[in-house]
Amino acid sequence: MSGSFSSQSRKPLLILNVEVWMEGLLNQWLWQQEYWLPPGITWKDMRMEERMEKGSRYPRPRDLLLTLPLALGFIALRYVFERVIALPLSRRFGVRDRQRVRVAFIPKLEAFYLKKRKQQPSQTPWFWEHRECWQGYPKQLVAEAHYWYYILELSFYWSLLLCVSVDVKRKDFKEQIIHHIATIFLIGFSYCSNYVRVGTLVMLVHDSSDFLLESAKMFNYGGWRKTCDVLFVMFAVIFLVTRLVVFPTRIVYTTLVDSLDFFAPFFGYYFFNALLLVLQALHIFWAWLILRMVYKFVFLGKVERDERSDEESDVEEEEEEKEECSWEQKKGTLNSKLASLANNCVLNNLTHQRRNMSYRMANTR
């Protein structure tokens, strides 16, 4: 009994030693505080007893493990939605815009809302004043809403990256791969380094225009050309303003310049800003494609197709054009043959009638 008891007591001890060894190895190579935290801040400071407000927390790297199963859930949801709902509806009923019921204005409720809103302090002053993103960094609590925004956003981009091999390959396929990888690194690293405030602003800037592009495509497929054109113009304006003006002058500026007033630069500072500059380069590339589409819309009257159309669709369009040309040629040849045949028939009839008339006149004489 004593031997079995000692062997059972040594087994948990061995597992504990392995876990400690693995944790020490990760701390030595990956989780060095010099990589993730400004000078003077240690992980011990971050692990101190958290006096959080209700619904707030400090970000922990292990929280991001939840994004992988959620990414698979997004893929399954997308598959079911496309096969079960989207395709049958688009084939049978087309794309229809739902009627939105306007809420009636009630003065008492409006006054109550305004009164309560003034009593509640703003929880996100950094949304407009971007220097507030760095006040107290990195000891900044994360609200529950921002936590789930990060988790769902990262899960969504994981699902896009996992599905990129089965989606339609378009002209900007390589740029899309770079964008997804840079975005995943950006979201994951900003969460671990507690760049959550400025990271939330980055995601909001990107999400503000993407849904308009997808909506324009949906109405284009449904044949609603005017609605598609209006949505495309709205998307182009918002994209150009947010990605070429707001993003570099406000967000990139505050991460490059304003942040240095609150902490000394470290590895995370350079890595995070490098990812932002990669995104900005992609913004310039896509802005060029959008401006080409705007040029077609303004001078040609409509946007004929997506500038990022896949190569297969281009081949199909060329084949269709060739078929149309060959059909037109065949049709023209057939018409000419029919016309010559008709002319021959008319001439033969006239010749036959002349012979009959001459024969009758000879008999009469």
Short description:
The protein has helices at 2-29, 33-36, 43-46, 67-92, 107-119, 144-162, 173-192, 196-221, 225-256, 267-300, 311-364; strands at 56-57, 142-143. With 365 residues, it is mostly helical. The chain is globular and about 90 Å long.
Describe this protein's structure:
This protein has eleven helices and two strands; from the N terminus they run H-H-H-E-H-H-E-H-H-H-H-H-H. It is an all-alpha fold and 365 residues long. Helix 4 (67-92) crosses helix 6 and helix 6 (144-162) packs across helix 8 (196-221). The chain is globular, with a radius of gyration of 34 Å.
Give me the secondary-structure topology.
Elements: H1 2-29, H2 33-36, H3 43-46, E1 56-57, H4 67-92, H5 107-119, E2 142-143, H6 144-162, H7 173-192, H8 196-221, H9 225-256, H10 267-300, H11 311-364
Antiparallel strand pairs: 1-2
Largest sheet: 2 strands, antiparallel
Strand content: under 5%
Structural class: mainly alpha
Helix content: over 70%
Multimer state: single chain
Through-space gap between termini: 147 Å
Top keywords for this entry?
365 residues; disordered N terminus; 11 helices; 71% helix
